[in-house]
Amino acid sequence: MKSFSPWIFPVFIFLLSCESSDRRQQQQRFEFDDSIILEMESELAQLEEEIILLKDHFEFLLANRDSILKIADTKKYEFDKGFSTNKPQDSDKLSTVVVFNTTSDFEKSMENVLITNDMDSLFNTSLEKYGMIAQVYYNTVDQVSRVFPAYDSKTLLAPVLDLTSFNFFYEGDFEHNPDKGPKWIPEVYIDPAGRGWILSLVHPVIDKGELYAVLGIDITVEEIFGRYLDDKKGEYLIVNSQGDIVGGNSGAIEALSFPPLLNHVYRETILSDNYRVSDFNLFNSKNNEVREMAKAIILNKEKSFFFEDDFSPVAAYSAPFNLLDWYLIEIVPGS
After folding, report:
1. What pLDDT does residue 174 have?
2. Which of 29, 59, 82, 201 has its CA 20 to 30 A from that of 115?
3. How many domains does the chain have?
4. pTM for the structure as a whole
5. CA dist 6 to 12, 54, 66, Å?
6. Domain match, 214 and 75 both
7. How many alpha carbons lie under 13 Å from residue 140 in its C-beta half-sphere?
8. How many Å apart are CA 94 and CA 153, to the nearest integer?
9. Per-residue pLDDT for 250 more than 50?
10. Strand 304-306, strand 315-320: pairing
């Protein structure tokens, strides 16, 4: 019979104790830097000021329609069945303008296009001022869409659309935006043009007391992440209130046992044919501790969560955004 060495068990306990002690020290010595959120939202707040400037000029044009029509450049755009014929490569100063078949008065809508042609130069200025902007646009109750920079609208759009049925319009209307000011649309969406997750800011445009249009500014989440987090030391995620990962570096995403990323790049992953939002949702994780972390941070509004499993990260620290219904989470990996 083999004898049992009495010193093995105490050594084993000692090693476990040291490991647990190291883990506790890693959890306790961390302090979350929420200045990152303040820096992000400071620039996002500037976009709110920018869209107000655009709104003011738009309403000025509408208020002076008669005098503007007398001098309007009727040859600035040519149209084919409601679609402006200019291509993105033709000029970097023109928008894409579409008058959809759903308009009740095509000629009146075309007249409003002439009145608001001056918005092109303001849209261009906005993009030059703020590198994070992907596009600027407006959509109207009489079914006119103007988007800058230009894109191939005939390939992407059907001529029969009701612009007022889309969230980039109705989120800015009086019912959904009773303050009638700048509003960040709570849901992000995956851009069909391949830019990843898109975040939108909208603002109503009022003509004679009635809603006429909704202005929009789109920015990419990747641009936000790249500007403020790529050069930070640490592993970060941005998640929305439903638990969807809308931004993150590979270290943070893979530390939480989510599916492998394509080339370790999240944007490439979400644009792949087999990408599903549910696969990258904290509440849907196969790891119970990740689900518990989501519950603690998103539902219970806790600022930290400590993992117990030795194969998990050590801790997660979080702070909510103020302008957006998002959370910034830093994942502290195990040593």
Report:
1. 97
2. 201
3. 2
4. 0.85
5. 11, 79, 98
6. yes
7. 28
8. 13
9. yes
10. antiparallel
